[in-house]
Amino acid sequence: MYLRSQCKAGNHSWDQFQALHSYEALCESITQYTAALSVCSIDHSHHPTTLNHLAAALYTRFGETGDMADLTASIQRNQDALPLCPIRHSHRPTILSDLGLALHTRFGQTRDIADLAASIKYHQDALVLRPVGHPGRFVTLNNLGLALHTRFGQTGDVADLVASIQCGQDALVLCPIGHPNRAFALNNLGLALYTRFGQTGDMADLVASIQYRQDALPLCPISHSIRSTILDNLGCSLYTRFGQTGDMADLVASIQYHQDALVLRPIGHPDRPSTLSNLGLALHARFGQTGDAADLVASIHYIQDALPICPVGYSLRSTILNNLGCSLYTRFGQTGDMADLVASIQYHQDALVLRPIGHPDRSSTLNNLGLALYTRFRQTGDMADLMASIQYNQDSLPLCPTGHSIRSVILSNLGVALHTRFGQTSDIADLIVSIQYHKDALTLRPIGHPDRSSTLNNLGLALCTRFGQTGDATDIVASIQYNQDALVLCPIGHALRSTLLNNLGCSFYKRFGQTGDISDLIASIQHHQDTLLLRPVGHPDRPSTLSSLGSSLCTRFRHTKDMADLAVSIQYNQDALLLCPIGHSIRSMILNNLAMALYERFGQADDPVDFDNSFRYLREGSEHPLSPLTDRLSASNNWIDLAVKHNSKSLGSAYASAMDLLDRSILLSASSIPEAHARMTQGGFRSQWRGITEDATSYAVKNHQLSTAVELSERGRALLFTHLGNYRTRLDDLEAASSNLTSRFRSLSLALEASTLSDGISMEGIVGAEDVVGRRQRLAADWDRTLMEIRQLEGFENFLRVAPFAQLKEAATGGPVVLVNISQYGSDAIIIHKTAEPVSIPLPDAAPAAIKALVHALTEVTADHPEEVQSNRILGSLLQDIWQMIVKPIISHLENTLRLRRGSRIWWILTSLACLLPIHAAGPYCPGELSLPDLYVSSYTPALSTLIRSRAGFQPLKRESGPQILVVAEPEAEGERPLPEIHREVALIRGLQAQVTVVEGEECTRDTVLASMKETAWVHFACHGHQHPTEPFRSHFSLHTRALSLTLLDIMKNNFPHVELAVLSACHSAAGNDLTPDEVIHLTSGMLFAGFRGVVGTMWAMTDHDGPEIAEDIYAWMFRNGPEAVDCRDSATALSKAVRNLRRKHVPFDRWINFVHYGI
Known about the structure:
Number of helices: 50
Largest sheet: 6 strands, mixed
Shape: elongated
Radius of gyration: 40 Å
Helix content: 55-70%
Number of strands: 14
Distance between the termini: 115 Å
Strand order of the largest sheet: 7-6-8-12-13-14
Strand content: 5-15%
Oligomer: single chain
């Protein structure tokens, strides 16, 4: 009797609570139910129902107070009740459902995924017990759908989202029009479809989500419990649709719905933080469209109000942190207040911590954090921020597959960051990938998309940059068109308008530089002036606009001589400089522009202060460490031009600065050596790079600084091989000084070498390409830092620096080395002798134009193969010209001053296009007169350091039966004409007293040849050879099948520990190319790099019949004293003897001057 009265009292109090929402009645019901349980045995039929009633009351009180003890007790009471209600018990479905709901709620507090999994299991079990027709089926479907939706948010498992939508659809069927729960069903189904849109980008889901929520709203009058929820959700859905379509009506409606929801969620309401945040986000978006500062102020205010009422652990906190970071970032863009940017980064970092791997919103936070870090880099020049920005955006891209709502944003931001990094490192791969990302983003932002204008702008800017590298007019035309299309989409007041105007001004200026069309220059000035009006004092981009406008005005002055333009140009650049203190990334650009404007004024007013300031600013611009290399190079080159013009004493420093920057630029400019070479051949870079080394060397010669001249020439030669050689430098001495540094340096060198010798980045792997580029640049940065640490060690201060002349002259150990320097300021030969000071010999007739003419004539006669008499006449004349211009005065000094005996060896280092000339065969070719081949034995070396390295540690191998010789013979390569004389060539070599291995036929594959080369001392190639005209690292030997040819890059990737001599009886093996002649990139130099001490090669196509003739005479001389006395250092003399025998047979010039020797 007492039990029944207690239960009845509990039910009465519960009814009172529901009717009056009286907290006291709720507490009284809990007291009564607890008292009833105290007198109700566990086996009593009312025990489970009383437990369930008490659990429901406790769960409700938790909703009122947030006291976790009530929620825990509620769950425990239902768990106690469940075993007491077997499967067919009428109350079991209710207990299962209530348990599922309570555990879902506890998950929202604790984020314990086990609670969420249990919740879903209980709801699924309840659904089985509530089949179609059961009055409680709707509630279970609804709760199960919500729990599955929540789990999807944690795991990203699409199956949960699909199941959630299905539950929502089934629940809606159970709630026809007029059903009291229809509004709940419509809202929850709308939520699930909205989430699926975020994953797939399917607009049908978004439209349906909006429709369901709009249908639900009239069913929920102002007092309805979920009206505020529906208003808030509708606002979110319309905001998202605005992001897809740009329809301002959606954005306006979104703001209104959020404002209405906020009224229904006063201070203290548990959902007030989400509405504050959502309203702030929508106002932020409207600011982006209208530029109304009041919207931005309100946006920040609302989101800041939300944060304090979302403590750590609150599920919405990460969203509020993210939104606040976005709004502060935008305000920074308006005011330039670094405090806003720093705070934005911190908020995004805090949000990322709350969005671990697997969180559905992790991608957006990664993207936003990347963008904020990128912007800070733009202010400070800190490369760590830029690298982190790229990495965060890279990490976010795979999380947003095609169709994801923010994929286009990430593509766009990645494109911008990579474009910027290109400006720092000149890595062309970054620019290529940047353009591709922008094109991909544009595809996802069709006409009408609100962000189409920004993508058009970014793509236009990247194409403008590429035009500056390649000079391809189609890029600059497309750049201007994209930016003009974007400007139409950004009326006055649009936040992006100033950026578009600025970029258009830059594009018109660059096109003017190509076409000289004054209308382009006028358009550039007008656009920059319009930009300046939109970038008042305090705007972070005002300095760049001031300087760009100043540069355009200075250019117009050069055409009109209007001093007003020049005065304004100087003033604008001075104003810009004040806004960019040391450390600002665009300081070098401003210094350069200001210097050139002041120099123009010096030309008009002859004020020495302007003259001195021009040089001072150019020096500072070239040395400013945090500015892009391209800007520093521009300042350095202008410094050189002015210093040459005025014979300034600073010219030497200017050359040193330029060579250092070019060296660094090449090192950083690509992720692989083929790409670095491609970079060197591009118009913009080539114009800055070509001739600098020769001109610097010439300057030093004119100032009688011959040791310095040699050092400068060495510094600027064979840069690609030099950088690769640094990765293979011997570390024996370093090991003794510091084993830890040695280990780290060796590991980094191996990794960098592997990256540098890769085949480059294909456009097919464009998304993965950035991984390669970023990884290489991080390795390079670590390598540089380690190198700096090594140079701190005593005795290692000059580790991997360009060797001083005292060391370089060791290259002349075996005979004099003649450096032929061809410069626009005067050509000279420098003769380097080990025991004497270097000597310079003027070569007044060897001007660059004359050398170019000789190379042109040589190329024609060796490529076109005229009939023999004509060929002999042309080549004879060429060799006579080379003799007169270059060789004769050198020979005179060798004979008359150095008293070098005939038959001695000399080495040649050629520069510029002279690298392509057969200097070794020059002569008067007149009766009674001797030519160079009659006087001395000539060899070539790409650089002094190459020759030193070839000699280092060399000891002739002690042999009893002759050297190991590998013969690579392929007379019938796929797709090539047959070479039948190779059989005779192979037979001759087989007859030597040596250990001869022949690789031929089907065995003649890349892998077999490379493996065999590692086990031999001498290699003889008898096959076709090809020098690639524009991509020299693709030069190759043709083996049995075309697909398995052996390329120069294949050879360079390997180290051959025992090799000494390579005889390349193959066409074009030492051909070189006219794009980068000073790099000396061909199969012969590649063999030197791979470890061969001496190499015989060919400058052009050879005659098949000459192969056996040359081979027989070379090896006859090499083996003249028996197999045990063979020395690879005799190979140059052996070749000289073989060529002399060919000459005695009166073969045409082109057949014998073709053969050259490189190395020791």
